[in-house]
Amino acid sequence: MKTTTTQQPNHSWLDKLAVSMAAICAVHCLLMPILIVALPIIATSLFVHEDFHIWMLLFVLPSTGISIFMGCRKHKDKWTAALSIIGLLVLTAVTVAEQQHHKAISAHNHACEQCTRSTHDSIPAYAWINALGGVFLVAAHGRNFRLCRKGHC
């Protein structure tokens, strides 16, 4: 007698995609100030456009939301949900605050202090906070991925 098992769709690729995007965000936020100084041509690229964080957030929100929802629906882990919610809230709040800052600066026709830092200054605070949000998301996706592999989500 042959037993048939129904194969559940595997959503781990969403976790991998979302972790990759979170890692790209973290690398972007932490290395871009250094790269701009080392390679000034980068200052004209898409990666330093003031709307870059909004564009990334438009990809991160749905991919994280779907992958975490699909996993939590099966394994019901509250830590995974909490880590992803915190990470998404941090990234969203920092992006909104950064956009408001850029609008306020452009309304006064000044150059943004954080955008025109000298090489001796530190990485801007919003970059660290963005990276922290990325760490929360990487932790959530890593946990989701492990729990789904154990429970065959």
Task: Describe the structure in your own words.
By secondary structure, the chain is mainly alpha-helical. The chain is built from 4 helices and no strands. α2 runs antiparallel to α3. It is elongated.
In terms of topology, how is this protein built?
Blueprint: H1 12-38, H2 52-75, H3 78-107, H4 125-151
Query: What global shape is seen?
Result: elongated
The overall pLDDT, averaged over residues, is 77
Radius of gyration: 19 Å
Total helical segments: 4
The helix fraction, in percent, is: over 70%
- The stretches of 5 or more residues where confidence is low (pLDDT under 50) are none
Give the structural class: mainly alpha
User: Separation of termini?
Assistant: 27 Å
Order of helices and strands: HHHH
What does the main sheet amount to? none
Strand content: under 5%
Number of β-strand runs: 0
Features of this protein?
153 residues, mainly alpha, 4 helices, 71% helix, 0% strand, elongated
How do you describe this structure in short?
This protein is mainly alpha-helical.
